[in-house]
Amino acid sequence: MTNKQAFSKIRHNSRPQKPRQYGVTEIRGPYYNVMGERYLRDIMETMGEHVDIIKFAGGSFSLMPEDQLIQFINICHEYGVKVDTGGWMEYVLTQGIDAVDHYIDECKRVGFDIIEISTGFLTMPSDDIVRLTQRVQKAGLLAKPEIGIQFGSGGTNTAAQNEAAGLTDIDKAIETGKKCLAAGAYMLMIESEGITESVTNWRTDVVSKFAKELGTDKVMFEAADPNVFAWYIKNYGPEINLFVDHSQIVQLEGLRRGIWGNNELFGRVLTLDDGKND
Prior knowledge:
By secondary structure, this protein is α/β, with parallel strands linked by helices. 38% of the residues lie in helices and 11% in strands. α1 links the parallel β1 (25-28) and β2. α1 packs parallel to α2, α5 packs parallel to α7 (170-182) and α7 packs parallel to α8 (204-214). The longest helix is centred in the middle third of the chain and has 14 residues, at 97-110.
């Protein structure tokens, strides 16, 4: 659903039409805030054109009445927005493979598009993650494996706690990511913990290595902090795939379009068309 935007004669960056293959914006759905039909429609009616995926967190969808969950998903689909489970898979995995099969079937039944395969609190062989990726894809859903460098990602650790836990092997994470993409994964999710979240200093070297080894078209970087997503756009351009909180849609899209920003980005973020309108 696309409507003509106001002030269309004022130049700004062009953006690909949905469904986008790059420059994808994923937003967090219900978790820190309750989000029902009216709240969701407000978001979609005003900014839905700038949203590609909405993601649940922490299994929050399992706390909703089923009819409300299905209605939520249907509204997203009205606006060309895919719906992602978030990383609840690792909780389901603790209950065995039958629970996993049930979970995948239920996700398909209620209308989810993407199942995230997270292992922030679990240690799993990369081949098992690949098999889960194939299992999700075979069910007709999009698999989005999570890779990262911090054990316990998705939690609430402080920088000191993360430093004490240590980092996982970056090369191993990259190897797992490559295997998952080869197995047909829709996209890879890069968690921010240990990189730009709960750290004393940002590990931009890790971002660079992920981008170099995996490319950026099939990688989604978590960047739920304005300074972080501004840094990504400054260094990787407006077509980097980013996951932010739903409260940050407008700020992020303003940076992507080059219409506003901080003193480093204001009016200086351009796409190859030199900033012409859609």
